[in-house]
Amino acid sequence: MRVTMLITMGIERPSGRRYFHLARGLVRQGHAVRILALHPDLPNCPQRRFIQDGVEVWYVGQMHARKSGSLPERFGPLALLRVVVTATLGMIWGVICSPADVYHLGKPQPINGMAALIAVSLIRRQRFYVDCDDDEVLSNRLPAAWQRAVFGFWQWLLPRLAAGVTVNTRYLQERLRKAGVDPIVLVPNGVNLEQFTVPPLVQREALRAALGLSDRRLVAYAGTLALQNHPVDLLIQAFGEVVRRIPTAALLMIGGGEDLPLLQQQVVQADLQDLVYFTGEVSHQSVPTLLSIADVSVDPVYDNKVAQARSPLKLVESMALGIPVITGDVGDRADVLLHGVAGVLVRPGDAAALAEAIIALLTDSQRQQRLSRESYIQSLHYSWERLAKIWATIYSTRAL
Questions:
Q1: What does the pLDDT look like over 10-43, one tens digit per residue?
Q2: Which contacts of 92-97 are long-range, i.e. CB under 8 A and separated by 24 or more positions?
Q3: How confident is the model over 241-270, as pLDDT tens digits?
Q4: What is the mean pLDDT of residues 132-149?
Q5: Domain residues for 22?
């Protein structure tokens, strides 16, 4: 089959990695896949059309915010309008130039939604599929009521018009099922097992030494520093108690995001600046090496709809490296961690409970080793190749 995906981000962004690796898995099944994507920094995009791992990628427009470093740059109202219009036209043209058996939207958002309605439904007279991997209204920083209303409208409309819907959590599956959407296929986020492999010990020790972390018990967070949907401030608050009990502990914050300055300020106010290390924005290819030097990885969450709707990449990526994970018991996280067999679950939104879990794990090497083995074994069930086969079942009405 020929499959065209319409996504509103670059393939290096967290959601973009979901779609790229699923596309890569479909290619390995023998399908031809093209991704029409929006680039985080289009003026400086070195190549707007290329093939990577058999997947054809076309960058047809600019994302809603420019992201070229650790801090995103927001557009003003007129510039944002221009970006939205040109990106929508670019995606419409991309569909016109991409005859396919299947069109699948990554996220029900306005830009790819308009392209689907105009180019797929009206011009090509085909139906499209939609993937929902978030609560788009709550997970995006939308300060104005009209912005929330626009995103809410498209999130409501597109799944109801789709030939089928894929989701990444049971929360979204149940919400859409109650709305009468059918069929729905559950495809959680996965891990590229070829990329997330443990580097040699000598390389890990050299990296620890270069960062001044040789004698530290290292806690890591790998992900976007955006408090709208990643309450990393909760982890920093918990880390203050960890250091009080384990003076050799250190915290490695891997990634950039719009709240990086705010979190750096929180660290200074807590007098932790000598023990918390911010890498800033790094390439996703660098994450496995950085994460592999940690003793434990943490995914801090609150018990809210944002967390319930998310299937965190950071969980399964840490597990593939054998790094024990601590996270809040929200949504599908208990299933991913086998209800505590392959990771540690704590009360969500509770910094004290998070601190106690980190301390308990850092001081119990036998438990760390056991969780390391179990988490790696569990991560094998989340390979993108396996998940791509599940994804393809949404097209079961066609000849696969």
A1: 999 888 999 999 999 999 999 999 999 999 999 9
A2: 92/118, 92/119, 93/60, 94/6, 94/36, 94/58, 94/60, 95/4, 95/6, 95/36, 95/119, 95/120, 95/123, 95/124, 96/123, 96/124
A3: 999 999 999 999 999 999 999 999 999 999
A4: 88
A5: 2-190+384-395
Contact predicate 314/223, CB 8 Å: yes
144/224 same-domain check:
no
Residue 223: alpha-carbon gap to chain centroid: 8
Give the global pTM.
0.94
Same domain, 205 and 185: no
H or E element in which residue 166 lies: strand 164-167
The token pair that represents 398 in the structure block: 């066609």
Q: Which residues contact 337 (CB under 8 A, 6 or more apart)?
A: 315, 325, 327, 343, 344, 345, 375, 378
- What is the rounded CA–CA span in Å between residue 189 and residue 313? 6
Q: Where are the alpha helices (DSSP H) in 3-69?
A: 14-28
At residue 397 the predicted structure's pLDDT band, cuts being 50, 70 and 90, is low
